[in-house]
Every structure is written in C-alpha cells, then in structure tokens.
Amino acid sequence: MSLAATAYGVAAALPSSLPTTENPAADFSDTPWWIALIKAVGIFVYLLVSTLLVIWFERRVIGRMQQRPGPNRNGPFGLLQTLADGMKSMLKEDITPANAEKLIYTAAPLIAATMAFVSFAIIPLGGTVWMFGHHTPLQVTDVPVAVLLVLAVASVGVYGIILAGWSSGSTYPLLGGLRSTAQVISYEIAMGLSLVAIFLYSGSMSTSAIVSAQSSLWYILPAFFSFAVYVITMVGETNRLPFDLAEGEGELTGGFHTEYSSMRFAMFFLGEYVNMFTVSALATTLFLGGWQAPPIISAINDNMFGGAWWGLLWFTAKLWFFMFIFVWLRGSLPRVRYDQFMRFGWKFLIPITLAWVVAVAFIRGAQLGFLGDSKLTFAGRELSVATVVIVSIVAVIALAAAWIWDDRRAARAAADDETPPEEIDPFAGGYPVPPLPGQRLAEPTQSSHRLAASRQPVLTGSTTSSTSSTSSSTAKEEDHG
C-alpha cells in the first residue's frame, strides 16, 4: 500500500497545479439510506447470478474449445448445472483437520469471500436514475480515493489466503498460501503503478469522475500500455490460468484450500469468481468508459442508447468481455513456471511501468500547459512534447532490452551451473551418493568422517545388540540340547 499511497500523493498534487477539465463526481444528495441498502442488495444479487452464469459459461466455452459438449443435462442447455453443484457443496460433509486452528480455519474463507464483494460498492454501474421517487446514481457509494479503496480491500483479501494455508495445519496448504501471497502482493505493485496514468489523465481517483472524464475519449487509447499491464496483473491477482500457481496440482495438490471441503471450499470458489468480476469492473471503469455507450452509438443517439438504465447494459457487456478473456486464457495457455512469473513481475513489469508513468507525467504536464507553451526546460534547453515522447519510448525500449539481456545472462549462468563437477564427495550431504557418469569419487573429508562416525554407534549398537541376543539364544539352545 506504500506504492498506492505514493500514487495518491502524485495524483492528488496535480489538480491543484494543473488546469484540468471539470469531471463531476456522482451526486448522492438525494439518496436516502434505504435506497443505498436496496442498491447494495441488488449488487449482491447481481454478482451471485453473474457467478452462476460465468461458471456455466466457462464450462461451455472450454468444452467447445476442447471439442466436447460441456454441461447440458441439468436445465435447458445445462444452465442449472452450477446451481446443482452449489447444492452439492451445501450437502457435503464438512471435515475439519485435527491439527487445524479452528477459528482461523473458519474465518479465512469468510474474509476471502466478503472482501471481494466490498470492492464492488464503489463501481458505477450506470448514470443517475429515477428510483422510488429519488434521483440516485447506480452506485452504492463513491469517495475521492475510490480506486485506492479497491487496492486496499484486495490487500485485505490476501489475509484470507495466507490464513487458510497456515490454519490448515498441513504442509501443502502452507506452501500454497505463501506462494499465492507473494504472487498477489507482487502483482498488486504493478497494478497500482498502471493506474497512476489514469489518475494523471483524469485528475481524480473517484470512479464516477473518471467515467465522466471519458465522455469523449476512452482511456484505453492514450493509456494503452497501462491497459496491457493491468490485464496481465489482473489475471495474476485473481490466481487464474496461466497464473494459478497457488493451485499447481503437480506440486501443491489444491494449494491453500487443499484441506477445505463443503461450503468452506465453496466460499473460496465464490470469492475467486467475484474477484474476477471486481477486477473486470475496475478495468471497464478506468479504461473502457464505464457504463457509457461506445462513441459511435452515443454519437448517433445518446439519449436513446446511452441513458441511465441503458448504462447498466453497456457496463455488463464490457464486463463479460473481460470474463471471456479469462475463460479464453484458461482454455488456451499452459501454466507458467513460478520463478519465471515472479521474475517477469519484478524485473520487467514494475520497472517498465515506472518508466511509463514518468513519460505520461511529462506528456500530461506539457499538454496542460504546466510546463509553459508545451516546452520543458532541462539543463538550460527547451524540449518539445515530441522530444519527451521520443525519449520516453527509447527509455521503455532500453528497459525491455535490459530485461531480455538479464534473462539471457541468467539462463547462461544457470546452464553453466548445471555442469556436474568432475569429483564429488559421496558423504557430503550425510548420505552416500553414487557418482554420475564421468565423475570420480573424492577422498572423504574430515567432516564426512565425523558424520559417519556419529551415525556409526547407533547402527553398530543395534547390530551388536541383535548379534549378542542371537548368540545368547543360540547358546541357550545348545545348553538345552
């Protein structure tokens, strides 16, 4: 959250010094508390129904991609299959491991599920509508730092993952929780940096104000690089293929929720899909104009196809576009290796996004006249906006080239390290190790002799005792004979 706070400091300082356009935030002055409660319940039902549909949608789409039908038995086109699976989870036996910390073991899935719902409260699903005699936005609430609220809630949701792995009292869940936590935290940094460009363009962190600022131009065009970084990080943030490294079946079984069953497991399942909707809704709000109609349609007749309730339709269509991307990635890409994924995040995404933020800051400052006639004075010389753009592009390319060179250098170093030594100590690790082809055995070192001697009395004692007992029993038999 320190980087998010830094982003807040950078963007909050801009509106006071830069002449920005008026982007009004949502007006909740005519919204009583009971209408806010109705909207909160409506969003809860909206997300639950969307989760039921997207699970069915994912199975059907991947079934088509893999040349199989997918669910088609329960209900028309298999639409009730997800409901049947939910009922099965409710009726299954709930097993708690004997070594589990029972209170935290139960609280972890609740944290993971509820935090995913909270983030959706600041997402504008539409414009101002007439509801029960009041003019109110199709949004539960909005705050001046609404986007940072989403990042903060996502950070709290990580506690559900790590606590689930630790409280299970098992090795594989603990490793899965640690791996997932490191992954989510790492990609939250790049995600937060990718959103700084949006703050610079809109001059606000309020979601409704950002949507208002995109009335003429969606930010996916000027902030195209931020959009690409955000799409990558939102897949890593939600632990979805090809980045579902917390649930690698080959090495971690089910990961942090291996010991969970019944409704506790279903809560993790629900939280994952609701989190997918949350990051997709944030992408829709920040890059695709939110609930606003596409520019071509709004230019034809904004009143007919861009009205307040129509905005809910446009928002849902954009939301499901990102959900299709999630499903398409799962059905087409294999799981990446964990060290490659972490190196990609720390050594490539974060540095190159920092360079992009600096470039956007220079460009935005020159566009708004903050630097004086679109000029930047540096070392006594005036630089135009084009010069700044060219320098920024060169800097980004240089960072990419440096990352590729570092990756190849690391690969060469790893290849050199894989060369087996010509001479090995068979007792170096405490146990005799046979040599590889082409290797020869070295003379055991003094430490190896001490290690072998420390193990010898145990083995010799047991052998001697068994030998002496055998000899004594034999002597007794001879005496009796």
Would you mind describing this structure in some detail?
By secondary structure, this protein is mainly alpha-helical. The protein has 2 domains: 2-14 and 27-336, no CATH class; 346-414. It has helices at 2-17, 33-65, 81-91, 102-118, 146-167, 171-202, 207-213, 224-237, 249-252, 262-287, 295-305, 308-332, 338-367, 385-417, 446-480, and strands at residues 128-131, 134-137, 375-378, 381-384, 423-424, 440-441. The strands form 3 sheets. Strands 1-2 form a two-stranded antiparallel sheet. A two-stranded antiparallel sheet has the order 3-4. Helix 4 (102-118) packs antiparallel against helix 5. It is globular and about 90 Å long. Mean pLDDT is 76; it is low at 1-21, 370-374, 376-381 and 457-481.
- Major sheet characteristics: 2 strands, antiparallel
- The rounded Rg comes to 30 Å
Could you tell me how far the N terminus lies from the C terminus, measured between alpha carbons in angstroms? 86 Å
Give the tally of β-strands. 6
Chain-averaged pLDDT: 76
Query: What proportion of the residues form beta strands (DSSP E)?
Result: under 5%
> Which stretches are low in confidence, meaning pLDDT under 50 for 5 or more residues running?
1-21, 370-374, 376-381, 457-481
Helix run count: 15
How many domain units? 2
- What structural class is derived from the secondary structure elements? mainly alpha
